[in-house]
Structures are given as C-alpha cells and as structure tokens.
C-alpha cells in the first residue's frame, strides 16, 4: 500500500465548500488503495487576518506569541477537513504539531524542522485512518509553538513524506511549474519534470510556487514531489532528480525575473579587503540579504563595488553606508533594475550558454549592468524597460 | 507574594481594545506585588462562529474534531493577551492546555479536569512572568484535545487556583451574584458573599453566572472565588464557605426561575416499582435530564407519575413513553410551567420556610403544580403567568 502525503494550500481550503471538495479528492485516493496523510494550510486569508489582529494589539507583536497565534489557523482547517472526511464515511484524525511532535529549532517565524514522531502517524494509518496534519507549525525544544515561515506547509508535507518514505503531492492554485512565468510570457511551457536544483534556483529567484526549504529537503532524501491542481485532469510537474542524459539537448530549463531589488554602488573605495569585507559584515549583521556582488578592477588602488539588496532594506543599508562616504567615496543607488536569471542543470555539461546569451543581448540592444553565475544559473541585472523584451528573446531561443 | 488566578470571559476580551484593557488591569495587579495567572475565554462570539463553521461542513460534526476546532478560540485570545501585556513592558507567556498538561477525562465537549502540571506555571511566575492560560480546554489520556463545556473556563481558573493554592477572581459582564435575577426583579439585592452550596443550587437552577463544576471544585478545596466586573470599583460577590452563624437571621439567600422545562404526567400506570423504574432508566439512557419527580398515592393500585424534563428533549422523551400508553395509561404534557426555587443554607437550621411559602402562595392565589425539596432548596412548578407575581411576593417576604 503506497503512502501518499498530500498538501493543500490556503486557497484550496478557503471555504467550507472547498474543504468538502478536498475531502472528496482524498477519499478517492483512499478508495484506490492508498494510505493518505494530508497537510493543510490555514483557510484563505486566515494567516493575514491573524497578523492584522495582532497589529491591532501592538505594532511589534512578541514573536513567540505571534507564532502561537498564527498556528491556530492550520489547527482550524485540519479539524474541519477531518470532519468533512468523516462525514463521507471514512475514518480520519487531525493532529497538531504537538500531537505528532514536529520538533523544530531556530527562530520563531522561520523555524526549521528537526524531527517528526512518525509512529503516531503510522499507527493511525494502520488503523485505516486518513491523517490530517497541521502544516506550517512545530514545537521547539522549550515546548513553544513555532512556525516555519510563509509556505512552510510545503516543508511539513515533504518532511512527513521523508519520515514515512512516501511520495509527496503539493496541490496549489497553479497547474504546475513553468519554464517562464506565464503571466510574463504567454507561450511559456509547463515542465513535466524539473530537477531539484533547478527548482531550488527558480524558487530563490522569485518563482514562488514552493517553499525553498521543502525542495532542499526533498532533494536530500530523494523524495519526488508532484506539484499541480487538485481535482483536475491537467498534468502538473514532478520535481525529482533528473537524469543528465535527457538534458544535453536542453541546457536551459527555466527563466525567472525579479523587480524587488535595488543595486548599490560604492565608488572609489580603497581596494583593501579589510575595509570591503567589514562593509559586507555590517550589512549582514542587519540581516540584509546581499545577492549579486561585482567589483571592478582597481585604478590607483581604488575600486567600485556594486551589489543588490531587497528594496525594503534600502533605508537601513544606506544608514550603514553613510560612514563610508566622503569627498572621494560616493554611494550610487540604481532602483531601475530587473534581475534576470536562466537556470538549467544542463549548463553543467553544455558550454557556450553565456556566450549565446550575450550575443542575443547585443543583437537586441539589451544593456547588462551586473552579472553573476553559478554552476547551473546565470543572473544579470538589466534595465526594467528591457524585461519583457529579454524574456521573449531568451525564452524563444532556449525553447522555454 | 499572593498568587491570583483571574478569569476573563469572552465579552471581556471581545475586541483588541478590550484585550488591551484587560492587559492594563492585569499589569495593575502585578504592580501591587501579586503573581498573576490569567485564564481567558475565546473572543466574543468566536466559539459560536466556529460551531457554525463546523455545521457548514456537516450537520453532525465529529466530536473529537469539534473539540480540536473549538480549542483554537482560546489559544488565539491567550496569545493576543500575552502580546498586549508584553507591549506594556511586562513579561508574559501564553500556555495552551498541552503546554501546562491540563489532563482531562470523560466525553468530548464535557470533559472533566483530572490534573494540571503546575510546575511549568510556577517556574514562569518565579521568573516574573504573567502566565496566560487557555481556558475551556484540556488533553485526554489519548492525547486528544478536549473541551470542558460552555463556561468551562471558570473551571480551568479554579483548578489552577487549587493547584497553586491561590485565590480566584472571575471577571464577567455582571457585577456580582444577585439574590434574584435583576432583569426579573428590579429591587434585587447583590450579595456580598454566598456559600458554595447556595451558589451551586442557584447555578444548576438557571442562574448562569458560573460553570457549576467550577463551584464544586472551589468548594472541595475551599478556594474563595470573587465574581464581578473588571476595571470597576463596584464590589462584586465572594463565593466561599459562609459561617452558619451569620445566616440564622436569613434563611433564604436567593431565588431562581426557569422556563426551560416541560412537565410530563403518566396517568393510571400500574403501581409497580419495576415498571416505573424501568421507565426512568430508559429516559436516563437517552441522557435526558429528569428534574422534579412526584407520584400520587395509588388508587386501585394505579398511580400518576409526574416529572419535568428540558423542553428540548420532549420529542425524544415522548418516543420512549409511546410504548407505555394504551387505553388506560395516558400521557399528559404541560408546557406551561415555570420552575421556581428558593435556596439558602439557613434552611438547614430554620424551620417553617415551606409553611411560610405556601401561606404566601395561598394568599396570592398562586397554584403549585409540583414540589420538590432538598436540604437547602425548595422548588415548585407554577404556572408561567404567575412567575413575576411569585418573584415579587417571595423576594419581598425574604428580603432578597
């Protein structure tokens, strides 16, 4: 008997009617002879509404208590789904993080799952019950309720699949993973499958279909993850380890863009590794996430250092940089950037992808402001006005 | 340092603004040098709204899952109150039933508290934290979430006060316990104090200020319980063991009425203890709560048996009685009754209360349909039209 761990997102359980539909889907899989664990998110906008409620109490809610508050959203939808399945004549039981000991560590609001007590889940499955587990939440070593961060229910589902050696199905409001965001490129192709690493790169680049940590976890334990619509015949995407052989003909799998960053350039700073690393340490201390970094060759032992940060952190970052600016050293800000990335594990074995990309940029008059690369990804900062043109040129060339 | 266990009802924490007011009251008591544990109910209509949500899933929600669902209401208000106290610069921590191991047994929806792990609460108090505990909920021996029934947060508060050897304050939307419901008798007197047993009788008779089990528990461990308004100088009522000495001059402490019952009479049934006890067993099997029972003297070895039951259970009860009715035995129903009770531990030592009451009934033309008595209570079934007159006559005579 196969064990399937399904996860339903907030929009899939947004109303009592939708919860009843999920119950029907679940029961259908049970009828086909599977053992099911179902992880649910909070209904619809519940999490946002709870945050708004906390903000009415205080502008800066205590983080332990905020996690305790938010965790109630998933408990509600769990209990309701269990009721709905029982009302269809099938046995079901809801479990909170406490009940199946989803142990976490790390900070409130972004805790990491250390372990799950799979015995209680297995016993319930062996008794023929559908197990409904609260996503997004855990219990830390002090016994406090914690949450895993936005999208954390994906990670709960994958973690349970790991512990039960099952397969994982993530049901969401998109019908799969696309090579390019379909809202930005209408001919975007849906992928039948994608490698864990590619998916990880795309997730961290703004393709917000899945919680990045859930993909890392699936990759680590080699758990295949299906992503798609529930109650639908439309085939979604399987995230798994993809055989390199299939990929030689397609070096680039996907493309992602983000307009959420700003580029900062520190001009004419001394080319002294202590000064420059000290600058980045101060930025890191404020938990500001620096992404692309580039440095020009020194002239008169002075260099220009550019880097991108999230727009939201600009003010805080400029406060840090103030102490570095003087008559010589100037701080430039460029808010007009789009981060444009192409991803593909085929790049490992296919040479010339960068060259091809630059040729296309040159032919189409697309200016590149910064560039960084990893083994399976190339990211450029371009002007925002060039975004759509770039997507079209690159997607067409690489058949995305 | 005194330990005070306070309980705030749903209307006291109905909005973020009200929660902030409760936080201020709590902080004031902390400033005066007390250690505080605060038990909260769910905000406003939360519990009713959650029940309505469950009913949208199924007409008959699974009881385990309904308890799991309802328990989230108190978790929410707990976390919000802890945030509000922290925002005022005082340390606080919220605990669910799971975290302080409020162990329960019995049925879902009306579980009984077996034990509470007071160590975790004491440790937090010793660190200078205000402890906010979720009322109304517990965990049974299978590790399931349970609830204690409507008003169960009172019992949570008293139970914690017992374990910590503290005093208990119940804050609600009435300013104390009255000898008569002030909505029915405008001259009703508020009581400075009332004995546990009197309060128990009044509670079970329809004076719904407090959860009956909380009073039983307070009585068993001799914990005084204050009932009143929060944030108010108006003095409430203390429920405690009242010295009989004070009471000789006042045999009757309070009066309660209920229109929620119906009287059933089975006429001309054989005066056979087996038949009659079998009838009541069948009624009890359906969990129908029989209150007043009276039986006429036998004529030709036939008797009339009358008893009252809650109106809600009438249909089910009649289904049972069908098998007893025939050409001889008839079932009469009287929906026009008010249960009228007077309560006072002074009755134990004062004779003639019944006689005085009957004299007043006779003089005022009040018909008594049934009567039952206990050591500290007399209950009559009267016609509903006589209710207000009876309240006035009796309240005036006994100075209530």
Structure description:
- The structure is a homodimer of 400-residue chains.
- Chain A is of the alpha/beta class and 400 residues long.
- Among the domains of chain A are: 3-173, Acetylglutamate kinase-like (Carbamate kinase), CATH 3.40.1160; 261-334, Alpha-Beta Plaits.
- Chain A contains eleven helices and 20 strands.
- Chain A has an eight-stranded mixed sheet, sandwiched between helices. A four-stranded antiparallel sheet of chain A has the order 13-18-20-19, with helices on both faces.
- In chain A, strand 4 (103-105) and strand 5 (112-115) form a beta hairpin.
- In chain A, helix 2 runs antiparallel to helix 3.
- The radius of gyration of chain A is 24 Å and the shape is globular.
- The two termini of chain A are 37 Å apart.
- The mean pLDDT of chain A is 91.
- Chain A binds chain B through residues 16, 19-20, 50, 53-54, 56-58, 60-62, 64-66, 68-69, 71-72, 75-76, 78-80, 82-84, 86-87, 93-94, 96, 98-99, 143-145, and chain B through 16, 19-20, 50, 53-54, 56-58, 60-62, 64-66, 68-69, 71-72, 75-76, 78-80, 82-84, 86-87, 93-94, 96, 98-99, 143-145.
- Chains A, B: Its EC number is 2.7.2.4.
- Chains A, B: One of its GO terms (cellular component) is cytosol.
- Chains A, B: It catalyses: L-aspartate + ATP = 4-phospho-L-aspartate + ADP.
């Amino acid at each position: 008997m196969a064990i399937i761990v399904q996860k339903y997102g907030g929009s899939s359980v947004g109303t009592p009617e939708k919860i009843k539909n999920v119950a029907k889907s679940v029961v259908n899989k049970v009828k086909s002879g599977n053992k099911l664990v179902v992880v649910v998110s909070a209904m619809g906008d519940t999490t946002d509404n709870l945050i708004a409620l906390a903000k009415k109490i205080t502008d800066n809610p205590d983080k332990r208590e905020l996690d305790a508050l938010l965790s109630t959203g998933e408990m509600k939808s769990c209990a309701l789904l269990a009721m709905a399945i029982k009302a269809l004549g099938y046995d079901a039981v809801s479990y909170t993080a406490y009940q199946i000991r989803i142990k976490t560590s790390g900070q409130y609001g972004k805790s990491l799952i250390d372990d799950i007590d799979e015995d209680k889940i297995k016993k319930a499955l062996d008794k023929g019950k559908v197990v409904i587990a609260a996503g997004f939440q855990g219990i830390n070593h002090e016994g406090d309720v914690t949450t895993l961060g936005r999208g954390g229910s994906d990670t709960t589902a994958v973690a349970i699949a790991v512990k039960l050696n099952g397969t994982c199905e993530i049901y969401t409001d998109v019908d799969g993973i696309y090579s390019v965001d379909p809202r930005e490129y209408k001919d975007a192709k849906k992928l039948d499958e994608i490698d864990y690493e590619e998916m990880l790169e795309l997730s961290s680049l703004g393709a917000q279909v899945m919680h990045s940590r859930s993909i890392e976890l699936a990759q680590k334990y080699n758990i295949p993850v299906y992503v798609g619509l529930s109650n639908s015949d439309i085939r979604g995407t399987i995230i798994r380890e993809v055989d390199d052989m299939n990929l030689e003909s397609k070096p680039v799998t996907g493309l992602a863009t983000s307009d959420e960053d700003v580029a900062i350039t520190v001009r004419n700073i001394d080319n002294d590794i202590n000064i420059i690393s000290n600058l980045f340490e101060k930025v890191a201390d404020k938990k500001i996430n620096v992404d692309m970094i580039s440095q020009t060759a020194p002239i008169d032992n002075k260099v220009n250092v550019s880097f991108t940060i999230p727009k939201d952190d600009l003010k805080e970052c400029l406060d840090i940089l103030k102490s570095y600016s003087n008559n010589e050293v100037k701080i430039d800000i460029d808010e007009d950037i789009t981060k444009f990335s192409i991803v593909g594990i085929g790049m490992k074995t296919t040479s010339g992808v960068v060259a091809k990309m630059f040729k296309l940029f040159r032919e189409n008059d697309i200016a590149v402001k910064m560039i960084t690369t990893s083994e399976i990804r190339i990211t450029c900062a371009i002007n925002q006005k060039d975004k759509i043109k770039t997507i079209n040129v690159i997607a067409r060339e690489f058949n995305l």
